[in-house]
Amino acid sequence: MDRTLDLPDTAALADLQTYLGRADAVERASVRLVGGAGVLAVYTAVLYPSGLLDDTPTVLGLRTVGIDPSQELDVVVPIASLVERMNRAGDDATSDLVRVGIPAEVNTVTWAGVAPPRSGWLPVGQTQADVLTEVAKAGIVEVAEALPADAGEPIVRRVRADVWSRPIEGAEHVPGGAAFAAHSLGFLMDPLEQIPIYDSGPWTRLSTERGHILVKRRAWSLQGS
Helices then strands (H, E): number in the chain? Predict the structure, then answer.
């Protein structure tokens, strides 16, 4: 029997459809679903290194929704397949239950094997949504202008790593890739929103009203080193 994910209502379904649609437009790959204690955490990768010599930071998006406390899961599945099943589930949904089939798992996603911590986060500062939006838009233009029309994957990755690894002014241990992720995933709705920044070990978290951005810093870039 196929496994299913039970969402509480069509509003939760629509929220995840929007989030995953944006994530799929950035990185047509996979999504990690972690459910337990009545909460579903939905992780998507915006940026991640392809090898040891790739300086691209690992930048993940995180959106959470409530689910039945009895449901527990930790799976990595293709975004496109999950969105397709969500679309079908919406047609059969009732007012108090949306049952979504879970696609076959993917076992070769490197970023999904690096789990962000669930506790131990300490506040280290804050930034503002319009600052992140400005960094993201400027970086997008720079990447586009730096890439030739026939650029291969290695060149694309090198340019993106250079642009999105640079620190954000006023939050020097946070790479610009965090701004790109927050902007691309639709997390920056209010330009004046004050966004707190937290650290836990090699991880940094930016928490907006719409979702979270998680950044795993390289050892050489850890704050204070």
Answer: 5, 12
Q: Distance between CA atoms of 123 and 205, rounded to whole angstroms?
A: 9
Instruction: Indicate the pTM of the whole model.
Output: 0.92
Residue range(s) of every CATH 3.10.150.10 domain in the chain: 4-109
Residues 6+ apart with CB under 8 A from 39: 64, 65, 66, 67
Structural class in CATH, domain 4-109: alpha beta
The first and second tokens of residue 119, run together, are 């506790």
Cβ atoms of residues 107 and 206 within 8 Å: no
| Tokens, residue 56 | 């691209």
Q: What is the pLDDT of residues 34-59, one digit of tens each?
A: 999 999 999 999 999 887 778 888 99
pLDDT of residue 26 exceeding 80 = yes
φ and ψ of 201, to 5 deg: 60, -130
